[in-house]
Design a protein that fits this description.
single chain, alpha+beta, Nucleoside Triphosphate Pyrophosphohydrolase, 7-stranded mixed β-sheet, 6 helices, 28% strand, globular, binds guanosine-5'-triphosphate, binds manganese (II) ion
């Protein structure tokens, strides 16, 4: 497994002066859908294709002097997803200095939804979001299955990701039991081979 940057406490990070803060969230839902009628999709996990061509999670910069982290994240989700997705402090998973930008603290949240709710988020992201086609080129679902020749999760992981979003994805998939450690290891190994 890829190592994630050292995490720090959320409150501790907010007490540091001179730092910018960004909050992003992984929205996910269980599904019984099957690809080609046989390969279980298992979970819907949302990421986005950003304006810069990199994959990342919905969310953005927040202003802790004016808003709580969760309120700032909700504001960003309204802009990028076109709908209010309530986020609470209980959805917080980790806060870390950004690897190549130590004055930026990135706060990560994970929220489980119903399949019908996540489908509504996907619809709103196209029809209602002011950032659609601007900062956000589109929402994407993460394929969690394995097909021939690295298809599925390995191919997805071989793309380019913003900041630490790739390791946020991998650790959340493990922490919330969406994939087993063995499956994640295999996906990363195959992705590395595809990238060579
Ligand atoms: P503006 O409205 O243009 O300011 O963008 P934004 O507020 O939506 O900010 P953005 O989502 O780009 O996040 C701000 C910074 O956080 C980025 O410049 C990246 O360095 C970093 N970042 C963006 N997405 C992610 C993500 O999914 N995970 C992590 N760890 N960092 C991210
Ligand atoms: Mn077809
Ligand atoms: Mn934004
Ligand atoms: Mn953003
Ligand atoms: Mn913003
Ligand atoms: Mn913006």
């Amino acid at each position: 497994m890829q190592t994630s940057p050292a995490s720090i406490g959320k409150e501790e990070s907010l007490s540091l002066g001179g730092h910018r803060h960004a909050c992003h969230v992984m929205l996910h839902a269980e599904t019984k859908a099957k690809l080609f009628g046989r390969t279980p999709i298992k979970h819907i996990v949302l990421m986005q294709m950003r304006f810069d061509g990199l994959l990342g999670f919905p969310g953005g910069l927040v202003e802790p002097s004016r808003e709580t982290l969760e309120a700032g994240l909700c504001r960003e989700l309204q802009e990028e997803l076109g709908t209010a997705v309530p986020i609470t402090p209980r959805d917080h998973v980790a806060s870390c200095p950004a690897p190549s930008c130590p004055d930026l603290i990135t706060h990560f949240y994970v929220k489980k939804m119903e399949e019908s709710e996540i489908k509504e988020v996907e619809r709103a992201a196209v029809t209602m979001a002011t950032d659609h086609g601007l900062e956000v080129m589109g929402m994407v679902r993460v394929p969690l299955y394995f097909l021939k020749h690295g298809g599925g999760l390995p191919s997805f992981l071989s793309h380019s990701f913003i900041s630490s979003s790739r390791s946020q994805l991998l650790s959340a998939l493990q922490q919330f039991g969406l994939l087993s450690p063995r499956e994640l290891e295999e996906a990363v190994t195959q992705a590395d081979q595809l990238r060579q």
